[in-house]
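Input record (Table S2, row 323):
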Amino acid sequence: MSTFTPSDIAALGKVGVLFGGRSAEREISLISGNGVLGALKSKGVDAHAFDPAERSLADLAAEKFDRVFIALHGRYGEDGSLQGALEQLGIPYTGSGVMASAVGMDKITTKIVWLAHGVPTPRYAVIGDQADLDRVVADLGLPLIVKPPLEGSTIGITKVTDASQLKAAVELARRYDKVVLAEQFIAGREFSVPVLGAGADARALPIIEIVAPEGNYDYQNKYFKDDTKYYCPAPLDEDITAAIKAHVENAYRALGCEGWGRVDVLLRASDNAPFLLEVNTSPGMTSHSLVPMAARAEGTSYEDLCVRILASASLKLGQPKKA
Ligand SMILES: Nc1ncnc2c1ncn2[C@@H]1O[C@H](COP(=O)(O)OP(=O)(O)O)[C@@H](O)[C@H]1O
Ligand SMILES: [Mg+2]
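Output record (adenosine-5'-diphosphate complex):
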């Protein structure tokens, strides 16, 4: 990866690091944002903290930031709404634009786009108010997974092993979103694959395998227990590694993602078939997070990764005309 000279750093100008925010993932965002802020400052970037939960977005223009690094997760930071505001203000920002952010936030729309592009993703059903739950079980088989399509961090997800559990699982997911997503359960290994870049230049970083002792669909397990293990580069045959990376890059481009992102993947144990679950368009960016882990496996430090992502900040809709 290329290194940045002092004049490259100076050219980045005054930088706002947006973190905190109002979503359920505020706590993780605070850690991500403080990490990014410290890393950018250590590289000589003129970086400043900005918490949208504490300040009005109008202040972004008043601060005269030349660009912003978005280290917010979830609603209001990752879902396209902030990206739209930044487009209107004419402030270049890291990561995906309005549409890719909004689509990436919705697991159902993501799957529809992916299926149109030949990206493998688990078979699914959309459960609205009037859904025939017996039909869902007949279509998808058991076990199946029920999740709220707009949440992150494994919130509201249930593995249903018996048809009698489906109603309660749907009710739990409905606490978060009106419409609920049910998916065929894929038994196998779990991976996450960071991607940097945009369009034809989008490239997957080394694949990370995630091994949680009691299964992966548990928030506590995955994020707060020490016994989840990560292996990067994932111990996989070369041909499977290449196939997963190709699907991930195709999936990222299909959604029009830019800058950076991370795609969650399952590899079915019975036949090594990959299934893509979702894309995170503003992934965790603490020094222990997965994207920095994969970058390190390629010899890129956390600090250099932060600068590289920042340098890719852009306006995706073009410069607005001055009134
Ligand atoms: N179809 C599925 N089959 C097996 N496990 C699943 C499936 N969908 C989700 N999971 C498990 O639940 C976790 C969270 O699901 P995911 O779709 O990535 O949502 P999020 O990370 O936004 O909460 C996954 O990392 C995986 O461990
Ligand atoms: Mg996920």
